[in-house]
């Protein structure tokens, strides 16, 4: 654990909050420009998040949150854990941190100009390395745990696509089996896999996909939604067939069900946000599952992934489901025992009256969906400690960053 930051450093960092509010995005955009000029570092990033500006915006919000909480860093423990898990999935190593330090400090000096005094630059150098040492230490712990776990590994491991299944008009599942034939690390429901992919015409790409299968020792399954003009999702849907080999790192992520699972549970998802919940449902025994409420929004019945699975669980009394079709009116035949269908998006007033305030609520989907849903849950009286959510992309929404 690094030595605590001194009072002077913390005071300078807090005084920089107005400058970060005004220029934070310019700083992080410049920082990424510098980082991506280095091909060894460039390959660690999801380039699509650079093109749409999502990654610089997300980092700007994170740096601002760090400055605002510099006196009470315990408030950022959850964010630090999410970052460490993401770094492990992407195989970030201690030797990568100096590149980031140089890019960040250089960007601060470039954007702030004469306002970036030597005193300010020294304080930010101290603040960066304080946080970096915390992350490096936590990442080392996770790497050690992965290496020691039955079936675990560190680095990239080749997996062969052993099966692919079309789950809906937009979602395809890929079952992944290790090429070496050895067991895999048993994942915790809710975790994701990270991939190093060589996409023809685009080069090296990095992506994270939630595991949609129940925990096991032989294989994993991911379920990928085709995104309009999505470089990787198009390639996976169009070109990756049974027999294709993909490079995969060990399961990571802290958006997990936990053991024992809390009860009652509400799963709230939109689009492909359902994938970690499918894994969680597969891990619940019949007794635990009886307290589950499953609320999902999708465009049409044709885009509804895992519909037969959800209806089967509902018919067995293992959950109650509400399915919202944002662009279609459901037919009577689409309802089933334990399943209620609705036309249109999930309305927040409906959720406020339908929710069990004693439940632990898991939320996953696009940022806007999560922001509105979490705000509704809080307003309805669900304690913050009972609201858990997973990020899509880089979580570039201020309401979802501490």
TrEMBL record:
Is involved in NO detoxification in an aerobic process, termed nitric oxide dioxygenase (NOD) reaction that utilizes O(2) and NAD(P)H to convert NO to nitrate, which protects the bacterium from various noxious nitrogen compounds. Therefore, plays a central role in the inducible response to nitrosative stress. Its cofactor is heme b; FAD. Transmembrane segments: none annotated. Residues 4-140 form the Globin domain. This is Flavohemoprotein. Keywords: Dioxygenase, FAD, Flavoprotein, Heme, Iron, Metal-binding, NAD, NADP, Oxidoreductase, Oxygen transport, Transport. GO terms for molecular function: FAD binding; heme binding; metal ion binding; nitric oxide dioxygenase NAD(P)H activity; oxygen binding; oxygen carrier activity. It holds the Pfam family FAD_binding_6. It catalyses: 2 nitric oxide + NADPH + 2 O2 = 2 nitrate + NADP(+) + H(+); 2 nitric oxide + NADH + 2 O2 = 2 nitrate + NAD(+) + H(+). Belongs to the globin family. Two-domain flavohemoproteins subfamily. It comes from the Bacteria. Residues 154-258 form the FAD-binding FR-type domain. Its EC number is 1.14.12.17. One of its GO terms (biological process) is nitric oxide catabolic process. InterPro entries: Cbr1-like_FAD-bd_dom, FAD-bd_FR_type, FNR_nucleotide-bd, Globin, Globin-like_sf, Globin/Proto, Riboflavin_synthase-like_b-brl.
């Amino acid at each position: 654990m690094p030595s605590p930051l001194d009072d002077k450093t913390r005071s300078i960092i807090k005084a920089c909050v107005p400058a970060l509010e005004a220029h934070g995005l310019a700083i992080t955009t410049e920082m990424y420009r510098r980082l991506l000029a280095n091909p060894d570092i460039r390959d660690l990033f999801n380039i699509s998040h650079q093109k749409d500006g999502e990654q610089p915006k997300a980092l700007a919000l994170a740096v601002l949150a760090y400055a605002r909480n510099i006196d009470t860093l315990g408030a950022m423990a959850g964010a630090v854990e999410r970052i460490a898990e993401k770094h492990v999935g992407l195989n970030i190593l201690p030797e990568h941190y100096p590149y980031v330090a140089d890019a960040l400090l250089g960007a601060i000096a470039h954007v702030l100009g004469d306002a970036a005094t030597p005193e300010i630059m020294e304080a930010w150098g101290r603040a960066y390395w304080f946080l970096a040492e915390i992350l490096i230490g936590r990442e080392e712990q996770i790497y050690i745990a992965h290496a020691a776990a039955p079936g675990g590994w560190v680095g990239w491991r080749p997996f062969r696509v052993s099966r692919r299944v079309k789950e809906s008009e937009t979602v395809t599942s890929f079952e992944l089996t290790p090429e070496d034939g050895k067991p895999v690390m048993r994942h915790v429901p809710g975790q994701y896999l990270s991939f190093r992919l060589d996409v023809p015409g685009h080069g090296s790409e990095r992506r994270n996909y939630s595991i949609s299968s129940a925990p096991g020792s032989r294989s994993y399954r991911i379920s990928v939604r085709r995104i309009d003009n999505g470089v990787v999702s198009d390639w996976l849907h169009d070109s990756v067939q049974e027999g294709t080999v993909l490079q995969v790192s060990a399961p990571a992520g802290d958006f997990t069900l936990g053991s024992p699972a809390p009860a009652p549970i509400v799963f709230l998802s939109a689009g492909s946000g359902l994938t970690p919940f499918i894994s969680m449902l597969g891990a619940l025994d019949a007794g635990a599952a009886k307290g589950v409420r499953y609320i999902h929004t999708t465009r049409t019945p044709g885009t509804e992934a895992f519909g037969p699975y959800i209806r089967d669980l509902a018919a067995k009394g293992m959950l109650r489901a509400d399915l919202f079709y944002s662009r279609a009116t459901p037919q009577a035949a689409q309802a089933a025992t334990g399943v209620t269908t609705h036309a249109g998006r999930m309305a927040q007033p409906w959720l406020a009256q339908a929710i069990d305030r004693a439940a632990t609520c898991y939320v996953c989907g696009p940022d806007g969906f999560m922001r509105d849903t979490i705000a509704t849950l809080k307003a309805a009286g669900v304690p913050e400690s009972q609201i858990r959510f997973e990020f899509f992309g880089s979580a570039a929404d201020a309401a979802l960053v501490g």
